[in-house]
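Pilot study result, target chain (278 residues):
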Amino acid sequence: MSAHTSQTELKLIGKLLLEGELHCETGLHIGAGKGSLEIGGADNPVVKDAFGRPYVPGSSLRGRLRSLLEQSTALAVPSELVYLSKRKGQEVRIHQSDRPEDEICLLFGRNSGRMERVSGEPMDAVTASPARLTVYDAPLDLESITVQMRDNMDDELTEVKSENAVDRITSQANPRTLERVPAGARFRIRMIVDVLCEEDKALLARLAESLRLLEDDSLGGGGSRGSGRVRFSALNVKWRGRRFYAEGAEESELLSGAGTAEFQKLATSPDLGSKLDG
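Predicted structure:
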């Protein structure tokens, strides 16, 4: 439970930088929509940058981390969910509350205003909270796509997985294709947590929890069919206090070349607060 209250004052203490690698243990599909279909191409292409290279959008990674935390803390229930969109077939429901100690809303931010709940009376949120967590787009490490991998893929950087949807009455197969970044690919991740008050230091434990949850879940589409298993490694954690920006003080290296277990030990350490000064 967070120690934040409605009277907590926000003033930048510093920023925690988390950088590392996201490894694809199985093929990864983060869809680009169907607007970029080409003749003979996959039915479901992956998102690519302007140079045609797959990447992991920061919004996709951030949204998945948030949803896993909402589920693990029993906040993904109708009474705690609000609609961001009610467009038929494309409904978007997320958790949001007006509780000052709500760690999910503190870490990922919340807007003020009137919102319709999935169940119950509409919520009139009066408190806006700035997001502490920023997740950047994760570019592909091209060196992770080896020559041997390229020789066995359908494209220079991606593979195409064929699937069948089978009608339960007629047994007729409906083939479809899914473009994926292959297993073995690596992406370079970068996240920043703004620490705006002493109480924010406890939010790092939530970030560590979400990373560990994702490693035993999936990212992107087709997770229940084998896609999207990922692992974090080579995590480097640095602290830049307010004096780093105001006076050019040195940054502090808190962790180097670590996995999620080591990061969680750091984030839950009783003496973490003393390491994060201005």
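One observation from the pilot: The longest strand covers residues 230-241. A full batch analysis is planned for the follow-on phase.
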